[in-house]
Amino acid sequence: MVGIILASHGEFAEGILQSGQMIVGEQENVKAVTLMPSEGPDDIRRKMEEAIASFDSDEVLFLVDLWGGTPFNQANTLFEDHKDKWAIVAGLNLGMLIEAFTGRFGMDKAQDIAKAIIEPGKDSVKVRPESLQPEEAEKETKNEEPSKPLPKGTVVGDGKIDIRLARIDSRLLHGQVATAWSKDVQPTRIIVVSDEVAKDDLRKSLITQASPPGIKANVIPIDKMIEISKDPRFGKTSALLLFETPQDALRVIKGGVDIEEVNVGSMAHSEGKVMINNVLSVDKDDVDAYREMQDHGVTFDVRKVPSDQSKDIWPLLKKTKYVD
Known about the structure:
Layout lengths: L2 E7 L2 H13 L5 E6 L5 H14 L5 E5 L5 H10 L7 E4 L3 H10 L6 H14 L38 E8 L5 H11 L3 E5 L1 H4 L2 H9 L6 E5 L1 H8 L8 E6 L2 H9 L6 E6 L7 E2 L5 E2 L1 H12 L3 E4 L11 H4 L7
Parallel strand pairs: 1-2, 1-3, 3-4, 5-8, 5-9, 6-7, 6-8, 9-12
Antiparallel strand pairs: 10-11
Helix pairs in contact: 1-4, 2-3, 4-5, 4-6, 9-10, 10-11
Subcellular location: Cell membrane; Cytoplasm
Subunit structure: Homodimer.
EC number: 2.7.1.191
């Protein structure tokens, strides 16, 4: 796996590494090196050399905070003898780092990853109000969904929505979903399915604004999702479905939406709920909903991020008094 060195003035590199791993999961072959106020160029160069020596790969990618700064200059000195394999990208931000982490799943060359992360790094720089954002040429996307409304009954593609992931997550659309999971399943739409959120204009607005580049985000009530699943106009829609509760997921499944597996990401703790791991809390109603989904043939995949090891939910639920 490509080795990644995060290099910065001060502790920025260590902080952004922690942030990236919160979203994507623990990473191998990654080191953060820092240039502290009391240190000089030789100190950070030594740290870089130690990091390189610890990697099990001769492919190295430097992600540095500032072009022309001391961390960049020392990385550039090391780079000179490895121009055929190594790469340096300056202007490190969290979007760029997440793209680098997930890019290692499919790319084994540092220079290929460097090329792939530049645009996502730029796309991470946004501003509100949107009128302050510089205008850019419209980018081509692979989205094959119809660009205009179609008459009812029109069959697009095979006439069936492609549900690539159905996830229960009380946080709904957040960093792990917008980056790691959307990268993994590559949907054309992220659809939050919730009667409660669909009635909340503020939450709806925040969710649609948080959509990653090139992917549309929608918030719809449960009955609308059931209706869409039977509408042939969505035959070229690839969807990532987000549910706030297992009860909402159950209603959709009972309504006829074809979901074979449910990913369980997080369920917030509240009064009356029992913690079954560090991110999942349930009560009797939740357990009953999981049991009824299982009766409908649904299996469960407990993972925060794609790189986590998949686990079944039932050994966790047995920690409660609601499962024999």
